[in-house]
Design goal:
Cysteine Rich Protein; alpha+beta; 4 helices; 2 domains; elongated; 3-stranded antiparallel sheet
Length: 165
């Protein structure tokens, strides 16, 4: 089908600055909706892609979710307007977790350390399984994630002490 073909071609991605919800002033001339081409007589309208939309007309081309409700960011590629989840599902890169080797879907949140990518649940010290919180110090040694304690113990066993700063 025509819609399916466009997914197979490579097009540049445009992450757009966002969707604005505007209240319609009663004394202004109604604007035309870019989705249905009818006049917008509602109390509110959306502005995206330098066009105006009814709240019901600005939808993801795949899942039909209302983009004004999902968030203030939308994606466009191959003349499609998409929500983040569908953009990543269709065009995102999947990979494997460096800790468990299982597939990481393109839309899933991840942690990164150099070239390695991890599921959020797998991002932990690989010796003691301590989970890291935002701001926690961790070390990457021989492609293993280590907490500070295990890293320093490993250095002591190797015969040199870490420098404390």
């Amino acid at each position: 089908s025509q819609k399916r073909k466009c997914f197979l071609n490579l097009f540049p991605l445009f992450l757009l600055p966002g969707i604005q919800m505007l209240s319609v002033q009663p004394d202004t001339k109604p604007k035309g909706c870019a989705g249905c081409n009818r006049k917008i007589k509602d109390r509110y309208l959306l502005k995206a892609l330098d066009k105006y939309w009814h709240e019901d007309c600005l939808k993801c081309a795949c899942c039909d979710c209302r983009l004004g409700e999902v968030g203030s960011t939308l994606y466009t590629k191959a003349n499609l307007i998409l929500c983040r989840r569908d953009y990543l599902r269709l065009f995102g890169v999947t990979g494997n977790c460096a800790a468990c080797s299982k597939l990481i879907p393109a839309f899933e949140m991840v942690m990164r350390a150099k070239e390695n990518v991890y599921h959020l649940d797998c991002f932990a010290c690989q010796l003691c399984n301590q989970r890291f919180c935002v701001g926690d110090k961790f070390f990457l040694k021989n492609n293993m994630i280590l907490c500070q304690t295990d890293y320093e113990e490993g250095l002591m066993k190797e015969g040199y002490a870490p420098q404390v700063r």
